[in-house]
Amino acid sequence: MSDQCDIIEMDSNASDLLSILHEGAFAKMPEQAWSGQEFQQLFLISGTKSYVINKDQQPIGFILLRNLIDEAEIITFCILPDCCNNGYATLLLEWIIKKLRGQSFKRLFLEVRNNNNAAIRLYKKCSFEIIGRRKGYYNSHHGNKIDAFVMQRHLIV
Ligand SMILES: CC(C)(COP(=O)(O)OP(=O)(O)OC[C@H]1O[C@@H](n2cnc3c(N)ncnc32)[C@H](O)[C@@H]1OP(=O)(O)O)[C@@H](O)C(=O)NCCC(=O)NCCS
Fold first, then answer.
1. What DSSP letter does each residue of 25-63 carry, written as one string?
2. How many domains does one find in the chain?
3. Closest-lying ligand 1 atom to the alpha carbon of residue 122
4. How far is the CA of 120 from the centre of ligand 1 (A)?
5. How do residues 14-42 score in pLDDT, each as one tens digit?
6. Ligand 1 pocket, Cβ-based, cut-off 6 angstroms
7. Which CATH number covers residue 136?
């Protein structure tokens, strides 16, 4: 992995950038792309934070989180396909985990499409465990309902 990599917190002004990255990363996935306006709406909810990862000063992915008292939820997370399989998602996720631990958060959780094998493997590699299933949680752009796994990672040992 290039060492010319940094992670920067962004706010709602980055909504259009997040939408472009999201569309690029999810283009071949059943999930619907989110517009810049939808990202702006998400930032209106208290505790919403985004962190963009740059490689050679170019944004290649991001994580969108919501902090809820002493827990945090990953709202969405992606790396552009051309940059995948280089450890960038692991780097960003481990960075976030370290940051949340430093802020005394107790748990990080997320929902993931139950057949998104790449993401599930990534989360398991980063010590997340499956704790539940939400039926029909996702709407695909084909109109189907898809189940999600709920996964969590304890942040305090
Ligand atoms: C899932 C995603 C974030 C992984 O990003 P990445 O930068 O390629 O991930 P990493 O290179 O850090 O890989 C970490 C682990 O993920 C798993 N993984 C990544 N890509 C994979 C693939 N295509 N197939 C199977 N496992 C994969 C592997 O376990 C890998 O570890 P390993 O290389 O030691 O086996 C990326 O593929 C993506 O953005 N996908 C589309 C959006 C998405 O599904 N987001 C998650 C929604 S909750």
1. HHTTSSBPP--HHHHHHHHHSTTEEEEEEEETTEEEEEE
2. 1
3. 16
4. 8
5. 999 999 999 999 999 888 899 999 999 99
6. 25-26, 29, 77-79, 84-90, 110, 112, 116-119, 121-122, 125
7. 3.40.630.30
